[in-house]
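Project outcomes to date are best conveyed with an example. Our students and postdoctoral researchers have been running inverse folding experiments weekly, and each run begins with a structure described purely in tokens. The record below, which covers 189 residues, was selected by the lab manager from last quarter's runs and is presented without edits.
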């Protein structure tokens, strides 16, 4: 939480809108973006590259998260229907573009938050208070998707091991594909 100083600088507004997570990283970039003007700025973001949609959700960019989710679903469907590989690669280009322009997209989101807060009030304390209320990240995404990943890894190991164990106990008749039930008299007792 940032307390409202006597006069608000753009750095103070950015700090309040970004929150505490990676504040120094974004302040450097946002100040550089301010110097360069209003265009989109290429600036590589490793989190946006490796975690694409999750990074958007983590940074509270909901529309972008759902757009990326839709694109991922389309790419998966295209791969399933044997689409030529060059088409699938074309579908991956927006995801790569998001890694290149993710910081700039986030910058625009933060600028819009600041503009909305300033439009709602002229009192510096209220502006900072509003930015603090809507700032930060969804840290729950790290826990939820981390748990899903761990569960997936455990399932990928456990399910085949279980199937191998239970498949070795069943025998099937090749002509009818029905299981052969053999009773072992020693197992009855």
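After processing, the design step wrote out the following sequence:
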């Amino acid at each position: 939480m940032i307390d409202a100083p006597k006069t608000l600088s753009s750095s103070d507004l950015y700090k309040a809108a970004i929150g505490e997570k990676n504040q120094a990283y974004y302040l450097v970039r946002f100040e550089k973006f301010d110097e360069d003007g209003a265009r989109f700025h290429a600036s590589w973001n490793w989190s946006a590259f490796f975690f694409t949609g999750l990074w958007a959700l983590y940074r509270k960019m909901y529309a972008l998260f759902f757009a990326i989710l839709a694109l991922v679903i389309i790419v998966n469907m295209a791969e399933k229907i044997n689409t030529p590989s060059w088409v699938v690669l074309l579908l991956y280009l927006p995801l790569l573009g998001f890694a290149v322009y993710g910081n700039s997209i986030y910058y625009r989101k933060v600028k819009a938050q600041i503009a909305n807060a300033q439009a709602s009030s002229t009192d510096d304390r209220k502006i900072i208070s509003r930015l603090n209320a809507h700032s930060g990240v969804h840290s729950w995404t790290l826990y939820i998707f981390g748990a899903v990943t761990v569960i997936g890894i455990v399932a990928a190991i456990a399910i085949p091991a279980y199937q191998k164990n239970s498949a070795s106990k069943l025998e099937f008749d090749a002509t009818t594909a029905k299981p052969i039930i053999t009773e072992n008299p020693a197992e009855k007792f």
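The longest strand covers residues 171-172. The two ends are 71 Å apart (CA to CA). The training component of this project remains on track.
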